[in-house]
Design a protein that fits this description.
By secondary structure, the protein is α/β, with parallel strands linked by helices. It is built from eleven helices and 17 strands. Helices cover about 25% and strands about 30% of the residues.
Length: about 325
């Protein structure tokens, strides 16, 4: 089979390897579609991997089941997968489908390939009426992170949300928060991504060119009050600081973007303005039915996708992602 190798230095290779054999409790999936994630860019640009790739969002058809399987997943089923898989059956978080909180979990990748294996407890069933492009979004990071984030900011008095960083995760937040009826302000330095945010429903957008006073513009747009919530999806310490300056007294900051340490003042950034800050990572396995229901009720999940490339054109797909002018980018594998 063919698998993508992220060699580093913005170099990719498609290599031929043996089709993996599912181990006990695993399934083998013939890939229909895989999605690029912003978290892959540091590996793509940097040192790469000894083999394989960090692709961790995919959907396809089960073609083999390993020994000791439970029977929940069978050959021929259409599935999307969670890259985070819990293991400790004695852990209440495992039993509740909160794999990221489980005291034992594993991360699975190498999904930019014709086939990949994953433990059966990482599989979500996809009905025939859900297309592959939607399936990979509602079972992976694409919608998973924005949805998991939305559960942390459900208060009815939240009316205005500012999203810093309009990459795929930031755009997912724009789409979902707009669908939930909030006013959304999108901030990014890419004119193309600002335009995508507008198409997804952002009420206001700010192009953060050098010298732009983004905070002043947000304060102006909110009649001097500040946003109710600021979502940091850029993964940049500067924008992390701006989030605290952009929210109102009693406001909330949510971190989606992985980033290095940020210096914050307990007094200035939290105490004296009653600010709440929290993190939101991946999504809980148990949240899939709710994301699927949102799609079925009208959420235009596929509108996050701006580019689709055949697997053979992975180089072009990664260049599009690295240039920072796109939304979600998919690789199609020609498997129905």
């Amino acid at each position: 089979m063919k698998i993508l190798h992220q060699q580093g230095g913005a170099r990719l290779a498609i290599e031929e390897v043996a089709i993996p054999v599912p181990k006990a409790g695993e399934v083998l999936i013939k890939t229909a579609v895989s999605a690029l994630c912003g978290s892959e860019m540091s590996t793509y640009r940097g040192d790469g991997r000894p083999s394989g790739n960090l692709g961790h969002e995919a959907a396809g058809v089960v073609v083999a089941v390993g020994p000791d399987a439970s029977g929940r997943i069978t050959v021929g089923q259409r599935v999307g997968v969670s890259a985070i898989v819990g293991w400790n059956e004695q852990d209440e978080n495992y039993r509740a489908g909160r794999y990221t909180w489980c005291d034992k979990f594993t991360f699975h990748c190498d999904m930019h390939a014709e086939y990949f294996t994953i433990p059966e407890q990482g599989c979500h069933l996809l009905p025939d009426e859900i297309p592959w492009d939607v399936g990979v979004l509602i079972t992976g990071d694409g919608l998973g992170v924005p949805y998991h984030t939305s559960l942390k900011i459900k208060a009815e008095d939240i009316r205005t949300v500012v999203v810093y960083g309009l990459g795929p995760i930031g755009l997912g937040n724009v789409l979902l928060q707009t669908f939930l009826g909030r006013r959304v302000i999108g901030v990014d330095r890419s004119p193309e991504r600002v335009d995508i945010a507008k198409r997804l429903g952002a009420t206001d957008t700010i192009l953060s060119t050098e010298g732009a006073d983004v905070v002043a513009r947000i304060v102006e747009l909110t009649n001097g009050r500040g946003a109710d919530v600021a979502i940091e999806a850029a993964g940049i310490p500067v924008t992390a600081k701006l989030c605290f300056l952009s929210v109102r007294k009693g406001g909330t900051v949510v971190f989606n973007g992985e980033q290095p340490a940020v210096t914050l003042s307990p007094s200035d950034d939290f105490i004296r303005r009653d600010i709440t800050a929290m993190g939101s990572w991946f999504y809980h396995f148990s949240e899939y039915p709710e994301m699927r229901a949102l799609y079925e009720s009208g959420l235009a999940a596929s509108s996050l996708i701006t580019h689709q490339f055949p697997f053979a054109q992975a180089d072009e797909a990664y260049r599009s992602m690295a240039e920072g002018r796109c939304g979600k980018v998919l690789l199609t594998h020609g498997n129905d």
